[in-house]
Specification:
It is built from 13 helices and 17 strands. It is an alpha/beta fold. The strands form 4 sheets. The chain has a 6-stranded mixed sheet with strand order 1-14-13-17-15-16. The protein has a 4-stranded antiparallel sheet with strand order 2-8-7-4, with no helix packed on it. Helix 3 packs across helix 5.
């Protein structure tokens, strides 16, 4: 089968062989009321109130939202304001833990035997895409398309991240059990799990866990970036093409991250909502990279301190990877649901002066979507909406491959992102 283009990133997964360990409880957690794509939640508790682990403290009043739950038991210290990475401000519930981690009595295993009950469970649990997307998982189960294939994303192609890798190695049984549960409820014919071929421990663990199940297959993939992007992943596992402007569900494919799948199974067994997640802590400011199980809302400064990081040396911190992740404006930001990595760097990216395009074609050769970034760049500079449409600008996934290989240092990814905004406003 034809393979889509991409780039081979210099591998720097120092945490790939580090087992998941539990982060000690912080002195305070700060839970912003927006940790997903969509609309913010509304605080459902007040200052001075005692809360339990798993208690709903952020109410989802919009269909474009899922509830937020307390990750610790303790007392609500205050309701403050929290600045998101995009500059927006949302309410934030700050809780001082009592160290007891008392589970809320309503945390009981849900009944999940139908697709609607599966969607309800995903929403009630506060589940979002744990691979970094932050999409609302329940909406995928709510759609009425005839899903024939479930694709689990275990590619994790960003160079520092290893949280999904450790989940696949250490919790393969939960991932497979979750996939089998979804397969049975939604009457899906086939489950395909995409894992990069240079992750043999993950391939082996998942393959062994899947031996007793029918139609669950582990698919080793080329170790290329952006292998984990959903359209690339779908093509490399199924051979199917997701058209421009469409989602995998539109062609009968449901895509879930492996960690999301593991969580859904855990929730089906315990009834404890999404209150903690595995985070890879890495970067050249971190002496010893590690994978930590972190309560949602923990300040990133606490996580970095635990990893032995000297905060005074840190110049930049990324949420997620360095290719598609976002930079944190402050050390007081919190670990949020979609966050799979915390990358602390002692140096800022070097400022590069852009020069004229030399027509070398490197950006064209690496683009997974077979676009021509230089033509898109030129059309955007001219604000040529017709040409931008004809060039299929909407297929761009903002992976950054074109900018990464450009010898002229042109900000192609940013320009195409602006072009997409221009088209959306037309």
């Amino acid at each position: 089968m034809k393979r889509l283009n991409g780039i081979r990133l210099l591998q720097s997964k120092r945490a790939q062989n580090k087992q998941i360990t539990v982060l000690p409880l912080p002195k305070r957690v700060r839970l912003p009321m927006l940790m997903h794509m969509g609309e913010p939640c509304v605080p459902a508790v007040q200052a001075g109130e005692y809360v339990y682990v798993g208690q709903e403290i952020g109410k989802a009043e919009s269909e474009q939202s899922v509830p937020i739950h307390a990750s610790v038991s303790g007392t609500v210290a205050q309701i403050s304001e929290y600045t998101l990475t995009d500059g927006r401000q949302v309410p934030c519930i700050e809780i001082e833990p009592d160290g007891m981690q008392v589970i809320h009595p309503d945390c009981v295993p849900p009944t999940i035997s139908t697709q609607q009950e599966l969607a309800d469970a995903a929403r009630n649990s506060g589940c979002v895409g744990l691979g970094g997307s932050g999409d609302l998982t329940y909406q995928k189960f709510s759609r009425q398309e005839n899903i024939t294939v479930l694709v689990l994303n275990g590619a994790e192609c960003e160079k520092h991240l290893a949280s999904d890798l450790r989940q696949m190695v250490e919790n393969a049984e939960q991932i497979i059990s979750g996939a089998a549960m979804i397969q049975k409820i939604m009457k899906i014919k086939e489950v395909l799990i995409g894992v990069q071929s240079n992750r043999p421990a993950a391939v082996q663990a998942l393959s062994q866990a899947a031996e007793s199940y029918k139609n669950i297959t582990v698919c080793p993939l080329p170790p290329l970036y952006p292998q984990g992007e959903k359209k690339v992943l779908v093509f490399h596992t199924t051979g199917m093409v997701v058209p421009e402007g469409k989602e995998p569900e539109d062609i009968g494919v449901l895509v879930l991250n492996v960690s999301t799948c593991a969580f859904l199974y855990q929730y089906s067994q315990t009834g404890i909502p999404l209150v903690e997640r595995v985070v890879t802590v890495d970067g050249n400011a971190v002496p010893k990279a590690r994978n930590l199980l972190v309560p949602i809302g923990t300040p990133i400064s606490d996580v970095l301190n635990h990893a032995g990081c000297e905060l005074d040396l840190v110049k930049q911190v990324y949420s997620g990877g360095t290719m598609m992740g976002v930079s944190y404006p402050t050390m007081q930001a919190s670990i949020v649901k979609p966050q799979n990595g915390l990358i602390a760097m002692k140096t800022l990216p070097k400022e590069k002066n852009a020069s004229d395009c030399i027509r070398c074609g490197r950006c064209v050769r690496v683009c997974p979507m077979q676009l021509n970034p230089t033509d898109l760049d030129r059309a955007y500079q001219l604000r040529d909406v017709r040409t931008l449409t004809a060039l299929h600008t909407g297929l761009c996934m903002s992976c950054g491959c074109c900018s990464y290989v450009c010898p002229a240092n042109r900000p192609l990814t940013d320009t195409i992102r602006q072009a997409k905004t221009l088209l959306s406003n037309e």
